[in-house]
Write a structure and sequence with these properties.
It is built from 21 helices and four strands. 45% of the residues lie in helices and 3% in strands. Helix 8 packs across helix 9, helix 9 runs antiparallel to helix 11 and helix 15 runs antiparallel to helix 16. The protein is mainly alpha-helical.
Length: 599
């Protein structure tokens, strides 16, 4: 009987019983070596720090001016190219991920990710740490010291059979309201009110073990779909001006996100360690020398290699489309939307040209094939992981399901239901990884889950009415609306822009007046002394063009229902209209926090 991910789920729960899986997630990647980003699973928590004008100017001056010459060293066998790069030049996109984590020296990085200020530009950045961080405890996640099997259990965690039986819902009949209510009940706990000293039922800062058990028992049915559903339910309650319900759903939403990402933290840590092994060895086909010996190490290395293939194959398709599609007025926007927009920078810090991308893709495919063809590395990986490789070469959903039922599952001594659950659990793990570069492999696994479920009871998805329903009476529907945009905003400018016909110069009715005004301003003629600046008035309601309004109501205001609690936890009732400049955003936020905190 061969071990599956589900068997590690059961083994792991016994091994880890009594041990809280409090782990989570800080980015293992950055989009460029000089500008990091933090992503906690699928939370939109990328740290976006505003930049003032002087910082932007300084950053522009410090941009690299050329591509390193040693770019092709790992791709070609040209010995003359070895060492041809300039180590002082800024590094380009890493072939394993979109970052230089593999090349970063661990001794130069902090234990966990931290915020630092660039001395040259004054810009705040995330400095990548050596370990994934737990968002609940703010400490680095620690892999088990009890042996490789314990670490494999951390990679694919689960609960004992009796706990699974207690918390497992019936996936063939369960509906979303019941699932949300059961999740709420296991998450609530007596919490002491800091103001009154009384105990109330609320969501504790550190989730309960029972909440972890419930999520682990139903991991394949929760994940990203539950996150999206809770977010939509919160917005729906908010759009109906049910403030208390919206606040309650937001608490549950955030609490569940902490639990889900805590469970995924060891998985992220192991893939981050695998990147550090695979990255510096890109192009080396002696995979046994660096992919690890233990099962969890080899599993992580394979998933990194497979993710690398999916990432660069997507880039290859984008590059092929962009270079082979003639640009016309009708497809201009479509071409702009394909591929990485950073390719339009003066000196792009990414690899995007077809001839470059195809070489890296071929090498990534060769490395993955070599891994698969090495029995010592591949043959004892969990069946769900190996099925991912086998499914890559089967065309058509019918052929795939026939292969699964008639060949793969009997050979592995597992059931199709168990395989489908294992694949969904793997899909949930990937959903908590960084979008760049793991978004492509996550999409591959997600489509595979859908394909193998067709025609079975597992095809039922209770989330569809909430996430894929345009009916105004749908359970997840909320009414969007248009805003009163500022007079100087880009939206207002585009709304008022007049279409310029091809070959013309646009409307010329006021051309002489415009020239006269510009000449007067240039030479200072007729210039009146400036008086005190008046505060912009927002009292006049802006009429949105019908083409953009698309039948939506105007300025309903429900997005402001929770006030500053949505961002800062305070209130904005007594704060007047503020003019947000790029250089004073910190002061405005600090002032709002002081006013909100003083109540």
């Amino acid at each position: 009987m061969k071990a599956t991910i589900l068997s590690f789920v059961s083994v792991g729960s016994f091994l880890l019983q009594g041990t809280q899986l409090s782990s989570v997630v800080v980015s293992a990647f950055s989009s460029t070596p000089t500008l990091g980003k933090t992503i906690s699973g699928s939370i939109p928590s990328t740290a976006l720090f505003a930049k003032n004008r002087s910082a932007r100017r300084m950053e522009k001056k410090t941009q690299g001016k050329s591509r390193p010459n040693n770019f092709y060293d790992a791709v070609t066998d040209d010995k003359n190219a070895q060492g041809g790069g300039d180590n002082n030049k800024p590094k380009q996109e890493d072939v394993v991920s979109a970052a230089s984590v593999s090349d970063a020296r661990s001794e130069s990085r902090p234990t966990v990710s931290t915020i630092v200020i660039d001395e040259a530009t004054g810009i705040e950045r995330i400095q990548q740490g050596q370990y994934v961080m737990d968002v609940a405890t703010r400490k680095a996640v620690k892999l088990s010291d009890l042996g490789p099997m314990y670490r494999m259990a951390q990679m694919f965690p689960g609960v004992p059979p009796d706990v699974r039986e207690k918390y497992r819902v019936d996936k063939y009949t369960i509906e979303v309201p019941e699932m949300v209510e059961r999740l709420r009940q296991v998450c609530l706990a007596p919490v002491k009110n800091e103001e009154t000293g009384e105990e109330i039922m609320d969501y504790p800062k550190k989730p309960k073990d029972e909440a972890f058990d419930f999520v682990l028992a139903n991991r394949d049915m929760l994940g990203l779909r539950m996150k999206k559903t809770l977010g939509r339910l919160k917005l729906r309650a908010q759009s109906q001006f049910k403030k208390e319900e919206a606040l309650e759903l937001r608490k549950l939403w955030k609490h569940y996100i902490i639990i889900d990402e805590s469970i995924s933290a060891p998985f992220r840590q192991m893939l981050m360690d695998a990147e550090a092994r695979v990255g510096p060895n890109f192009g080396n086909l002696d995979l046994k020398s660096f992919c690890g010996k233990e099962l969890y190490e080899r599993t992580a290395s394979y998933l990194v290699l497979k993710g690398m293939v999916a990432h660069w194959e997507k880039k290859l398709r984008d590059a092929e489309y962009v270079e082979n599609t003639p640009e016309t007025r009708s497809n201009f926007i479509q071409i702009l939307m394909v591929g990485d927009p950073k390719r339009y920078l003066p000196d792009p810090p990414i690899i995007f040209r077809y001839d470059e991308v195809v070489r890296i893709t071929l090498m990534a495919q060769n490395m993955t094939a070599q891994f698969v063809n090495t029995p010592e590395l591949f043959n004892d990986l969990p069946p769900e992981v190996r099925f991912l490789e086998a499914a890559s070469f089967i065309k058509g959903g019918t052929a795939l399901r026939k292969f699964m039922i008639e060949e793969f599952c009997p050979a592995e001594e597992i059931t199709p239901e168990g395989l489908r659950e294992g694949l969904r659990r793997l899909d949930v793990q990937f959903s908590n990884m960084q979008i760049d570069p793991y978004g492509d492999i996550k999409n591959v696994v997600g489509r595979l889950c859908d394909a193998v479920a067709v025609g079975s009871d597992d095809e039922r998805d209770p989330y569809i009415p909430y996430l894929c329903n345009l009916d105004r009476n749908g359970p997840g529907y909320f009414q969007t609306y248009t805003f009163n945009h500022d007079r100087q905003s880009l939206v207002r400018f585009l709304d008022n822009a007049k279409e310029v016909q091809q070959g013309g110069i646009g409307p010329t009715g006021n051309l002489l007046d415009q020239i006269s005004n510009e000449a007067s301003n240039l030479f200072g003629l007729g210039k009146k002394p400036e008086g005190p600046k008046e505060k912009p008035s927002n009292e006049q309601e802006y009429k949105v063009p019908e083409s953009r309004a698309a039948g939506r109501p105007h300025n309903l205001g429900w997005l402001d229902l929770l006030g500053d609690e949505e961002v800062t936890g305070g209130s904005s009732d007594d704060i007047g209209d503020e003019i947000y400049e790029s250089d004073n955003w910190r002061e405005v936020i600090a002032r709002k926090q002081r006013i909100g905190g003083g109540r």
